[in-house]
Write the structure tokens for this entry.
Amino acid sequence: MNEFKRAIAFLLCVTVVVGFSGGLSAAGETASDDSSANASANASAEAITTEATTTAVDIATSIDATTEASSDATTEAATTEAKPTIKWKNKTESIKAGKSYTFKAVVTGSDDDIKYSVSNTNVATINETSGKLKAKKVGKVTVTAKAGKLTVTVEVTVKAKKIICLDPGHSGSVAKGTEPIGPGSKTMKAKDNSGTCGNYTHVPEYKLTLTVAKKLRTTLISRGYKVVMTRNDNKKSISCIKRAKVANNAKANAYLRIHADSIGSSAVRGMSMHYASTSNPYIGKKYGAANKKLSAAIKKGFVKATGSKVRGGGLNARNDLTGNNWAYCPTTLIEMGFMSNPTEDKLMQTAAYQKKMVKGMADGFDIYFGYK
């Protein structure tokens, strides 16, 4: 390219000089007898030749600069086009626990395979090659797509799939007095009572229910639920209405009241569910059907996980339970077994059986909400 430019400059120079020289020769011949005219003509020729040469050089320099600029622009464009990039084609910044989403990144200018990863596998997992993410529990996680040295990231918020309120029945401190059995009712009932006690283990019901509720909370959170508790210790006295209001204020999608049963006969055993039916005068029309559906789901999960016997049909429609009547969401009460029965009393105190009960109730929620 440089040799070509030099040739162009030379030809321009020769052309210009020859042209000017020809004109000057003709002038010289006309004034050959005049020595002063000759001197003047020679000076003019020299000046014109110099100017012509300068003009040719300037033209060559301009060509050189233009060519170099064009070459630089072409090189820069080629470099820009060749630079590899990675970007998201499919992404989301929010997903509910229990749901899946497939992320997709695209690469240009590189043959490297794309691999996907997440910053916290406790919150979500992702398939390394397909990019399919499964949200596990509430939290934040960074999703990364990597191809060679190229990376692109996005922060994803995993939201709770549902809100569940758990009510560990009774308490070590009993709420005193009475309260209406339902909204607008003139029928009064004790705000709470001390509950029963294991006839053989001598463990109070309120201790058992709190132990199980805390374990159930942990399991539900691990499955992506948000959990609210009506109490977290055995020192708090709280009435049945106030317990229901905890669920209402939390805008719970489901409310489970956890209890254990007792009766005069030590032979009686088995789990059971108690709910406000469609005939309930307080909340039956709005929640009666959902209450029964929730009760059936938890019963199914509980029995399958524990192998527990079922007392009667296991589903009991009742309109006399204050805690059920004041709850403005699908609600049910579980009697996990009889503390008056030696087998069930001892069984419910073991960590192994508690694990089964917890799994069963958690499975019941998954069944109810359609996750299982």
